[in-house]
UniProtKB/TrEMBL annotation:
Pfam family, one: Thymidylate_kin
Listed InterPro entries: P-loop_NTPase, Thymidylate_kin-like_dom, Thymidylate_kinase
Protein name per the record: Thymidylate kinase
Free-text function comment from the UniProt entry: Phosphorylation of dTMP to form dTDP in both de novo and salvage pathways of dTTP synthesis.
Family as reported in the entry's similarity comment: Belongs to the thymidylate kinase family.
């Protein structure tokens, strides 16, 4: 085995319409400019099976989805994605840039659905072992603004069809995660114009690339 340094594992987080997909393009452009090799992926999803689980999770349905069933589907997709895609890329020295990861589970299934964070932490340990993102870029904006932005990008999925109270809980949970571990999180104000958000992201990336 070659002595390659592990790549950095960066996740982009935040509620509906905060600008994750838009800024992911900015991040990959930045990585291209630096000559850093990377893969870009997303959760839930990132492999054919995990993408099928994503469709099942996002699809609107008449049947109420049990929160624990939802949680287990998220982690089933994650186990597949981690082992097939993320770990091999990191082992090859590539950066992994992922649109949502386990913080989204703490925010949506924990904050939004009300599941105990301790249960999520157990599954996190089982599925991920000690693997955690090197840095979480958390885009933060009032969900009213985020949903207005998201409305312009297509029909609402099962999560986007929730009530405002759900999105407020999601935002609060994300912020609590960031406050609990400030050295791993970059809390980025996403209410400001895109160019300003991207200045903050560039500064954060510089710091991550410069760190060991
Ligand atoms: N800082 C910003 N100011 C104004 N508009 C923005 C900003 N950031 C993103 N947008 C716009 O908001 C819309 C939603 O952005 P985007 O799809 O990137 O969000 P997202 O976080 O990926 O959403 P989702 O959670 O639905 O995947 C897009 O039309 C995008 O151009
Ligand atoms: Mg998106």
């Amino acid at each position: 085995m070659q002595d390659l340094p592990q790549g950095k594992f960066i996740t982009l987080e935040g509620g509906e319409g905060v600008g994750k997909s838009t800024n992911l393009r900015f991040i990959t452009q930045w990585l291209d400019e630096q000559g850093i090799s990377y893969i870009q992926t997303r959760e839930p999803g990132g492999t054919p099976l995990a993408e099928q689980l994503r469709s099942l999770l996002l699809e609107k349905r008449d049947e109420r989805v049990d929160p624990t069933a939802e949680l287990l589907m998220v982690f089933a997709a994650r186990a597949q994605h981690l082992n097939q895609v993320i770990k091999p890329a990191l082992a090859q020295g590539k950066w992994v840039v992922c649109d949502r990861f386990t913080d989204a589970t703490y925010a949506y299934q924990g904050g939004g659905r009300g599941l105990d964070w301790a249960l999520i932490a157990q599954l996190e340990q089982t599925v991920q072992g000690d693997l955690r993102p090197d840095s979480v870029l958390l885009l933060d904006v009032d969900p009213e603004i985020g949903l207005q932005r998201a409305a312009s990008t297509g029909a609402a999925d099962r999560f986007e069809s929730e009530q405002m109270d759900f999105f407020r809980k999601v935002r609060a949970a994300y912020r609590k995660r960031a406050e609990g571990n400030p050295e791993c999180y970059q809390l980025i104000d996403a209410s400001v114009p895109l160019e300003e958000v991207q200045q903050s992201l560039a500064a954060a990336l510089q710091q991550i690339a410069g760190g060991s």
